[in-house]
Amino acid sequence: MQEQLSKLEKELLLKLARLAIEDAVRGKSVKPLNLSQYPESLRAPGVTFVTLTRKGNLRGCIGALEAHQPLAEDVREHAIAAALSDYRFPPVREDELDDLEIEISRLTPPKPLLYQTPEELLSALRPHIDGVTLMDGFKRATFLPQVWEKLPDKERFLQHLCQKMGARPNLWHEKKLQVHTYQVEEFRESNLSTD
């Protein structure tokens, strides 16, 4: 895992995400970041998922799997997209802002998981540690490590991930798919406010 972010760096990212969401939901233009005002760790390339919950229920989640921009920019981009562009939900409304909880997951670079049989794949998975990406041609889907909390059974986890990819639930068992794993550093507003 890359070096952990400090509490201050996490707070800065959560504040960036919150301000970007509030501006976007209110229809204001999001001002460009002056990256020179941020620590090097937030200017370096990074990749994240931003998850929004409201009263304990998922309200949006958007991210990427490969770093292509500074970490601070990545967080802002995915925060706005989670609020306005997650196809599973209507855009966040202004009257929901106070009830939103923001969670950021910073991803490590993905690594291929090598296996030969479905049994080897199952034994190589590490619940609650690894995020998993499945690829079949141009189809691709991922679950963050946090999804293990809802789907702790490895077979069900893979079945749901195949469905998310738009494939049959047992595709992982029927053919060899490309599999990558990664870990996350996850933090949310409520955790930091109590530290």
Set down the secondary structure blueprint:
Layout: H1 7-25, H2 40-43, E1 45-46, E2 48-54, E3 57-63, E4 69-70, H3 71-84, E5 100-107, E6 111-112, H4 118-124, E7 131-136, E8 139-143, H5 154-164, H6 171-174, E9 178-182, E10 184-188, H7 189-194
Antiparallel strand pairs: 1-4, 2-3, 2-5, 5-10, 6-9, 7-8, 7-9
Written description of the protein model:
By secondary structure, the chain is of the alpha+beta class. It has two domains: 7-107, Glycoprotein, Type 4 Pilin, CATH 3.30.700.20; 111-182, Dna Ligase, domain 1 (2-Layer Sandwich). Helices cover 33% and strands 25% of the residues. The chain has helices spanning 7-25, 40-43, 71-84, 118-124, 154-164, 171-174, 189-194; strands at residues 45-46, 48-54, 57-63, 69-70, 100-107, 111-112, 131-136, 139-143, 178-182, 184-188. The strands form three sheets. The protein has a four-stranded antiparallel β-sheet with strand order 3-2-5-10. Helix 1 (7-25) crosses helix 3 (71-84).
